[in-house]
Amino acid sequence: MSDTIKYLLSEEQMPKDWYNLAADLPTPAPAVLHPGTLQPVGPDDLAPLFPMSLIMQEVSQERRIEIPEPVRQVLRQWRPAPLFRARALEKALGTPAKIYYKYEGVSPAGSHKPNTAIPQAFYNREAGIRKLTTETGAGQWGSSLSFAGALFGISVEVFQVRISYDQKPYRRALMETYGATCVASPSNQTAAGRAILAQNPNHPGSLGIAISEAVELAAQRDDTKYALGSVLNHVLLHQTIIGEEAILQMEMAGDDPDVVIGCAGGGSNFAGIAFPFLGLQLRGGANAKKRRIIAVEPAACPSLTRGKYAYDFGDTAHLTPLTKMHTLGSTFTPPGFHAGGLRYHGMAPMVSHAKELGLIEAQAYHQTACFEAGVTFARAEGIVPAPESNHAVKAAIEEALRCKREGKSETILFNLSGHGHFDMMAYTDYFAGKLQDVNYDEAALATALAGLPGVSA
Amino acid sequence: MSDTIKYLLSEEQMPKDWYNLAADLPTPAPAVLHPGTLQPVGPDDLAPLFPMSLIMQEVSQERRIEIPEPVRQVLRQWRPAPLFRARALEKALGTPAKIYYKYEGVSPAGSHKPNTAIPQAFYNREAGIRKLTTETGAGQWGSSLSFAGALFGISVEVFQVRISYDQKPYRRALMETYGATCVASPSNQTAAGRAILAQNPNHPGSLGIAISEAVELAAQRDDTKYALGSVLNHVLLHQTIIGEEAILQMEMAGDDPDVVIGCAGGGSNFAGIAFPFLGLQLRGGANAKKRRIIAVEPAACPSLTRGKYAYDFGDTAHLTPLTKMHTLGSTFTPPGFHAGGLRYHGMAPMVSHAKELGLIEAQAYHQTACFEAGVTFARAEGIVPAPESNHAVKAAIEEALRCKREGKSETILFNLSGHGHFDMMAYTDYFAGKLQDVNYDEAALATALAGLPGVSA
């Protein structure tokens, strides 16, 4: 029987500000560089792609940035999001640990992504923008931006990695239901796409290529901008509402996490849960205890645990600025696995910087172990996690089992970033024994790492 | 931009009782008859299939029946469910009407069905039952009972209509994730199934056949009972928590519905939203205003609008008792359409009785008009409705447009019984122009109606 306890904030308790980790870091993250001049980019360099309000957030050193009321109005449809004590899971594991999870699958698009899609659509509309382009892999981000576009009257064009476009038609149907246009990438609509198709008409695509296409299109038109669903500082900033709520909810529960866990692809949901707790620690004071903060990534695409901390491009066609991050190389194509949202060569610069400073840990798990953890979770707690979120579930279960071995009743908090309703085919494959652990090609990784720009600033 | 307003009750405000319409009806619903003796069935006749606690609820005349605390504990994971004012939809329609919707898609299984799956699993476990059998069409009910079985440690075997089993593997994956066994029906596991397969090895199945199989299996074993997801009085009873909450939430909003709408297949979500409001009217007093209460059904399976009010079986093999209801005939096979949850030949006896008493209205719509309404709703409100729920959305929009024509600012409340995450292929077909309106075969309906038992009691 479910012994789950729900901690729900009132709408009045929904955070009024986002939290900016940059204000509290002991040293600033390395500058973003212009790929031509190798000089730090200024706000104007980013203006073709983003409205100035988001660029100012990207470079802000302010600790608190106010969430505009029209954004709060939309977020209130599903926020504050619940935090649960997973007592049934604790019992199933026989652990003395206390396990809590913050659940972001309550948004209409089913994940944490609308937390940033909504403000991005809002700021773009304020700037008079009529159209947004973006990329998506599995489709969590593309469907979230489509949702935001529908609410704010902005048309959205999504370049979806072709292999996902073909294999996961349900997410595409969701984007189209919200009125967005979804294009398989590489496409004939851009020079970047045409160049790749010329070499290989059946190219399966990658997030790096899809970003190139979306950026290229946005840069060409004054009424069109580009939106990114992870990696950038302003995206991470928008996700901190997750951790800000979780801090209040852990107080409601009369508890305080010893371990904070999030899965990490580009790093946005991880930063969302982790950065506010990191801020407590960095600022010192009553809540400043040192917590273990763990980013969990797929073993098949392990940027934090196997990548190089170096300057690299965010995309394949090298249209983006250079950022210093943990990267597998922008020419690296991750192998196919079901957590498409974690299939990116790089990691958010701010997350990478925190890792370099020793503020966070990183772990990597293979997918079958993650699905096994997800099924254990679903049978105890009732919620079926997204394949990406299963990585966080796996790490939380591992920590709980460690506590059992060590006889410790630590408090574990993880972010359940989304539900798996659009990913049930992966569960079907898992039950049918068709799901296998995949590895990246060591030689290809070595090549990609060797091809890094070699810029040090 | 979304102007949606959310009305959320505290956990303390979650109803402590279910509401039983039988206590307030001016005349009792006709008796349920034993198919052999044609005499009213007693509790003992139903004992092979249901635990006595549920049978007592089935025949209860008590107005309020307490929700056991262990059931409330589970329901609190997602309840009280939110009620929203659909201001963005109102604006999109340009209507002076106020539109509210109660959203039941927040449950882990994604629909209202866990409201009854949880108490059914609880009462069976209290009675020492180890296994439950049931049927499912599209899979909303099967996945909900599987979810409940996982929480209460009861194994669940689901007979899924074969055509859905083959066409909708995602719902099956959800059932299996919860640990249930899912069998395509007709199957070789039962005499009922074998008899049908002997005639037609490729039979696509129907809910009536799947019920026969599940009932047959449950009746054979002492530790196994049967669970039904709609139609029966105790199922409708468990769903009244929807309307009980909605009454409180409409008070929060300072409003009171003139029109209450639910889609109706077997009738449970409709009864859930409608019966508590009907009770206010029947009991008289301060809130007793006459509201229009509308059941919305698919034009391709129109039991309330085209069926006969007569005694009929609930299943195809005629293993169930005879109930008086609006029926298309238990030998009638509804044509295939995407709202599989509304594809049943009969209607809940209590809903049928209310219709005969003139307490409720019924409307029927074809599926393409319902999907069009669902897309309009999704683009305004962000939530993608289940195909079943789209029928309620369609009726609500029609009422809102009537208000616009008539210049009336009526208050419309409808039940959004579930989300469409597992039904996106239907949306894909809709956008691709592949979705067509289907009609039942008039001759087959005439035959099925002519074959009714002809019992009058």
Provide structural commentary:
Two copies of one chain form a homodimer. Chain A is built from 19 helices and 15 strands. By secondary structure, chain A is an alpha/beta fold. In chain A, strand 6, helix 6 and strand 7 form a beta-alpha-beta unit. Chain A is globular. The termini of chain A are far apart. The interface between A and B is large, with 50 and 50 residues.
What topology does this entry show?
The structure is a homodimer.
Chain A: E1 5-7, E2 17-19, H1 43-46, H2 52-59, E3 64-66, H3 69-75, E4 83-85, H4 87-93, E5 98-103, H5 114-126, E6 131-136, H6 140-152, E7 155-161, H7 162-167, H8 169-177, E8 181-185, H9 191-199, H10 207-220, E9 224-226, H11 233-239, H12 241-252, E10 259-263, H13 268-283, E11 292-298, H14 303-306, E12 308-313, E13 322-327, H15 349-356, E14 361-365, H16 367-381, H17 387-406, E15 411-416, H18 424-431, H19 442-450
Parallel strand pairs in A: 5-15, 6-7, 6-9, 7-8, 10-11, 10-15, 11-14
Antiparallel strand pairs in A: 1-4, 2-3, 4-5, 12-13
Helix pairs in contact in A: 2-11, 3-5, 4-16, 5-6, 6-8, 11-13, 12-13, 16-17
